Fold these 2 entries.
Entry 1:
Amino acid sequence: GAVVSQHPSRVICKSGTSVKIECRSLDFQATTMFWYRQFPKKSLMLMATSNEGSKATYEQGVEKDKFLINHASLTLSTLTVTSAHPEDSSFYICSARQGASTEAFFGQGTRLTVV
Amino acid sequence: AQSVTQPDIHITVSEGASLELRCNYSYGATPYLFWYVQSPGQGLQLLLKYFSGDTLVQGIKGFEAEFKRSQSSFNLRKPSVHWSDAAEYFCAVTIQGAQKLVFGQGTRLTINP
């Protein structure tokens, strides 16, 4: 099956710094990528949807200036958490989809801890 | 509004026992349905999906699910669970042409030895 690689799997950063998370589709062209946030023992909350070459569409309540999403190529999307604070600590998961396919494939997730 | 409900937050079964995880959806159009499994600290792995055709679908790891339109349900089943099945299970729904998946709240499965 299609593989989506997310990096890093874990990151610890200091409050006020920025951290970048990468999401790569290894064997298919990801025309659409999705970024989710998952709180402990909770479901996935969609943060934004990005189509290659276009600006991301953010869900209501998600700060676009804080969570910068770039989808400049068909195999890579990045999520940058700017000026991170402890409340941004969470598990972030990306998924990717090719063309009009309804099925999306998920990365392994990134555990972000802001200290 | 479109929604997905997994009524059971936590289920505990004994190893070797049968399992059924419930999923109900509320959608105006014909849904595309998915079940995912998540181990602690990991991403999501697709167990099975239903788009059309036979309403009983087979997935990986011995799981199956049945789409019942009249009940707006897509319950996940396994005849005999293994200790390695302990994980979080998510039901998700989308419709043709939609961009995003809508997830249920998840059901945490614990296996007793």
Note: The mean pLDDT of chain B is 92.
Entry 2:
Amino acid sequence: GAVVSQHPSRVICKSGTSVKIECRSLDFQATTMFWYRQFPKQSLMLMATSNEGSKATYEQGVEKDKFLINHASLTLSTLTVTSAHPEDSSFYICSASLADSYEQYFGPGTRLTVT
Amino acid sequence: AQKITQTQPGMFVQEKEAVTLDCTYDTSDQSYGLFWYKQPSSGEMIFLIYQGSYDEQNATEGRYSLNFQKARKSANLVISASQLGDSAMYFCAMSSASEKTSYDKVIFGPGTSLSVIP
């Protein structure tokens, strides 16, 4: 099956710094990648949709200047949390999909802690 | 607006018994897909089963089956012969294609925590 990786799996950063999370599709080319955020004991909330070569589409309420998304190739999308604050601490999960496929393949997630 | 409702925050089931996890959805789209995912404590999202809105047969995948009732807009997950390893969060999700984009966006329900008792 299709494999999606995320790096890092865990990261701790200080308040005010930026942190980058990578999402890679390892054995397929993903036309679209999605970024989700999950707070403890809550559901996944879609943050943005990333298409290769074009600007990301952000969901309502998600600050695009704070959560920078770059989809540089068909196998890599990055999420950069800029000027991180403790309230940004969360579990960030990416997923990737193929054209004409209903299934999304999820990465293992990145746990971000901002101190 | 699309919405997924899971009314059972937590469920318990005896090992080897069957359990039904409820899911109702709301959408005005004619074409959509329904999913169930399992999320163990490790955090990974594990795809379990998929049902297309035009599929006439209920989807089945091993011990998982989806009871799709389109008129009632429900897509309940049935797990047969529960195992201890089934203890996890279960999320119902729905995808639908926007007219403006070429991709399907997936939204998730609030989840149900399932605990299997030995």
Note: The mean pLDDT of chain A is 92.
